[in-house]
Specification:
Layout (H helix, E strand, L loop, with lengths): L1 H31 L5 H38 L1 E5 L5 E4 L1 H7 L3 H4 L13 H12 L4 E8 L5 E12 L5 E10 L1 H17 L4 E6 L4 E5 L1 H5 L11 E2 H4 L6 H12 L4 E8 L2 E9 L8 E8 L1 H36 L8 H32 L4 E7 H17 L3 E7 L4 E4 L1 H18 L4 E8 L4 E8 L33 H11 L3 E7 L3 E9 L10 E3 L5
Parallel strand pairs: 13-15
Antiparallel strand pairs: 1-2, 1-5, 3-4, 4-5, 6-7, 6-11, 7-8, 9-10, 10-11, 12-14, 12-19, 15-16, 16-18, 17-18
Helix pairs in contact: 1-2, 10-11, 11-14, 12-13, 13-14
């Protein structure tokens, strides 16, 4: 660009030079014309014509150069830097693309418009120009708002009229759209291999803009391209009340995602609708549909298997435990000490197996909606006292003391036995994770919107990576630090399930090395609530 400027200035001087000399020549020639011979007149005419053509050619070339410079400024992002690599010129196209003003860029180093991680590339460009060579390639520009602008850059040395390097010239073309298209292509390529059906469509017209391979596979007529087609034309499923109602709810609400179930050919699909960013006044949505029939059937078979095996195991295990207990009690006569130790191990393991079987049956009952709840007014204080008595010996085995704080009594609407099971699970879990000589505090708090039961331990706390799955099956097995702790890992999952079945919520606070507090929120009994017990009976399979 610097060479362009120098060339234009030289051409303008040349035009003025030839025009002025031509005028001087005419002034000298007029008095002498009469004295010239015919041959001399012809020679002068030929000289005048040559000079005129040369002047016109120079003028034409300078005009063409000016037009080329204008075209370059209009379609390219141009900047000039001096020998100190400071910006001395930026064109309007560059300012418009980056959001800067001229004052914000002039005098700044070249690196000002680069991201820190791209400074190595900047150094390479400068070194290339210093050798008198041109660098070309993709380069990012840091815009005023911090966003990135992808460009194709030609970085060349600028030279003066003496051929000496006087700076550098940067000529860029914006390739952001190309980059976005490439990113979109990569995304769609990834979506094509997803095993779920994926559609992108206009929410007003239901015009389908994209369907991945799995979506096309399930279309009537096989694997076709559903471009320029309406969703109802692709599949009658999208004319159903379930789908249209779900779409209306999403569009008319502030929800980010709307989830619903929809059936095709008696097969259940879990569907998710999400609004995409509005473009050009139109609103598109993303639809993902997952066939969960196989998964639910597998879950059903697994649950039935676990339930059957557990039922079949519980009776013989109860018999084994009882028989071992009788032998240990001396019903079969005196037992040698060595044999007693072996029988003690067998008896404890029988207890553990029965605990596992009962927990498995409980969690499957809750999942299937088959656990009964006899809900009525109960004293939470009585339930807590009963849980302390039931777990004192267990806690003593970990050298842990159980303490009671807070309100003595509080009436809640719950099933007594199921709530006792909930508290027992929290207390036994707290004892297992406590340090020796530790304590577990059970606290009833009245006030606010709920009656609160807290079970606080001072153990190792729950690692951050496990906190999101504390209430999942078997997650608690990873939390306990005690090598003597036994359990199924289902206790906290059962706690959450029992709480939710009774309209309660459960949460926890934890700090590693300090301990964990579990809180169960029991709603206050409504004033108009009938005190008569509400029986929720087992559902038939």
């Amino acid at each position: 660009m610097i060479s362009f400027v120098f060339t234009m200035a030289t051409l303008q001087v040349g035009i003025l030079y030839y025009r002025s000399h031509l005028a001087d020549a005419v002034n000298v020639l007029i008095p002498a014309i009469s004295a010239l011979t015919g041959l001399g007149l012809l020679a002068l005419w030929w000289q005048w014509r040559r000079d005129t053509r040369r002047s016109y050619r120079i003028f034409t070339q300078s005009e063409q150069l000016r037009q080329e410079v204008n075209a370059l400024n209009k379609h390219a992002l141009v900047s000039l830097a001096d020998v100190n690599c400071q910006l001395v010129y930026v064109n309007d196209a560059l300012l418009n693309a980056t959001g800067y003003t001229e004052e914000e860029l002039i005098g700044k180093p070249l690196e000002f418009m680069y991201f820190a991680e791209d400074h190595e590339q900047t150094a390479t460009q400068r070194a290339t120009a210093a050798r008198g060579e041109t660098w070309q390639g993709e380069s990012r520009v840091r815009c005023k708002d911090g966003s990135e602008l992808w460009t194709n850059l030609t970085f060349m040395p600028g030279v003066n009229s003496n051929g000496m390097m006087c700076g550098s010239i940067s000529v860029r073309t914006d390739i952001s759209d190309v980059k976005r298209l490439q990113a979109d292509k990569d995304v769609f390529q990834a979506l094509s291999s997803v095993p779920d059906e994926i559609y992108i469509f206009n929410t007003d017209t239901l015009h389908c803009k994209y369907a991945n391979n799995e979506a096309r596979k399930n279309l009537p007529g096989g694997n076709v391209t559903p471009v320029d087609a309406l969703l109802p034309e692709i599949d009658p499923l999208f004319q159903s009340d379930v789908f249209t109602d779900a779409l209306s709810r999403l569009v008319e609400s502030d929800m980010d995602i709307y989830r619903f179930d929809i059936f095709r050919d008696m097969r259940k699909h879990e569907a998710q609708l999400k609004l995409l960013a509005r473009q050009g006044g139109t609103q598109d949505a993303l639809l993902i549909m997952s066939d969960v029939s196989h998964r639910e059937e597998a879950e059903r078979i697994k649950s039935e298997f676990i339930s059957t095996v557990s039922h079949e195991l519980r009776s013989p295990m109860t018999s084994i435990k009882g028989s071992l207990g009788l032998i240990l009690a001396g019903s079969g006569g005196e037992i040698p000490d060595q044999a007693r130790d072996i029988l003690d191990i067998a008896h404890r393991n029988a207890d553990r197996l029965i605990l596992i079987i009962n927990d498995l049956l409980d969690i499957e009952k809750i999942a299937a909606g088959k656990m009964s709840f006899d809900i009525g007014p109960q004293d939470l204080g009585t339930i807590v006292d009963e849980a302390i008595r039931a777990n004192e010996c267990y806690a003593r085995g970990f050298d842990v003391t159980l303490l009671r704080e807070g309100a003595s009594h509080a009436t809640v609407l719950v099933d007594f036995d199921r709530t006792l099971q909930l508290v027992n699970n929290l207390v036994s879990n707290a004892a297992k994770v406590s340090n020796p000589h530790g304590k577990v505090i059970l606290r009833i708090i009245e006030g606010g919107d709920n009656i609160l039961l807290e079970v606080q331990d001072f153990g190792c706390g729950i690692p951050e990576e496990l906190q999101t799955m504390v209430f999942e099956k078997f997650a608690a097995k990873q939390v306990s630090s005690s090598p003597t702790a036994v359990g199924t890992g289902l206790g906290l999952a059962i706690v959450k399930a029992i709480a939710e079945q009774q309209g309660c919520t459960v949460e926890f606070d934890t700090k590693q090395g300090i301990g964990t507090t579990f809180r169960v929120h029991f709603p206050y009994p409504s004033n108009g609530k009938d005190a008569q017990n509400i029986l929720v009976s087992e559902q038939s399979a």
